[in-house]
Amino acid sequence: MKNGTKRIITDNLILRKFKEDDYQEMYDNWASNANVANNAGWPVHKKIESTKKLVKMWVDEYKNENVFNWIITLKDSNKAIGSITVVSKDLNNRVCEIGYNIGEDFWNKGYGTEAIKNVIKYLFSLNIFDVITAACFDDNIASKRVLEKNNFTKEGLLRNRVIINSQKKSLLQFSIVKEEL
Ligand SMILES: CC(C)(COP(=O)(O)OP(=O)(O)OC[C@H]1O[C@@H](n2cnc3c(N)ncnc32)[C@H](O)[C@@H]1OP(=O)(O)O)[C@@H](O)C(=O)NCCC(=O)NCCS
């Protein structure tokens, strides 16, 4: 695989590789926000050191060309507002799964939809994936909506599949196949 986290420029956004010094904005804008973390299903960052360590690890991972992990920045202000990542891939079956987060201050402005749209277009263009999947908690209205707006199809409900903050949650599974782009 020759291509990895290629810079992607969209109408309002620049998607690029993380740099080590992005940790402060990531912590401030989404990693320390419980509403983002709980909806996404990862532990909220209580200390900035956790974010710093994670970003350093991600930057190191770019040595591996088959990593797809973008920080989402606003074209106009350069502000870092979120991330979008291939969280798993199965190259034999030509399938990958995406995950994404947008900081709460930037919700409902179309940025999540725009990031997903351009990332799936890029991933399909590589000709290594025929199916892209995504999963969200069944009560995550915004995430369901951004997938529907990008022509993903709901495939099923995985009942009581995860426990978040002692609460059982069901997962909705979505996918898009290349021909549906
Ligand atoms: C999911 C997420 C990425 C969406 O990003 P975003 O930039 O706000 O998305 P957009 O603005 O492109 O679209 C959001 C859509 O959800 C709709 N929406 C949001 N909250 C809603 C609610 N409570 N009821 C009805 N619709 C709602 C918006 O109206 C919009 O749809 P529309 O364009 O048809 O009006 C963002 O909310 C997020 O990061 N949440 C926390 C982390 C997370 O859930 N990650 C995904 C894990 S699967």
Structure description:
The protein is α+β, with helices and mostly antiparallel strands and 181 residues long. Helices cover 30% and strands 34% of the residues. The chain is built from five helices and eight strands. It has an eight-stranded mixed sheet, sandwiched between helices. A hairpin with a 2-residue loop joins β7 (153-164) and β8. The protein is globular and about 40 Å long. The two termini are 22 Å apart. The mean pLDDT is 97. Coenzyme A binds next to α2, β5, α4 and α5. Coenzyme A (COA) binds at residues 36, 39-40, 100-102, 107-113, 136, 140-143, 145-146.
Task: Provide key terms for this protein.
181 residues; alpha+beta; Aminopeptidase; 8-stranded mixed beta sheet; 8 strands
Mean pLDDT: 97
Question: CATH superfamily name?
Answer: Gcn5-related N-acetyltransferase (GNAT)
Question: What is the count of structural domains?
Answer: 1
Please state the overall shape, judged from the principal axes of the Cα atoms: globular
Characterize the main sheet.
8 strands, mixed
Strand content: 25-35%
Percent helix, as a range, is: 25-40%
Low-confidence stretches: none
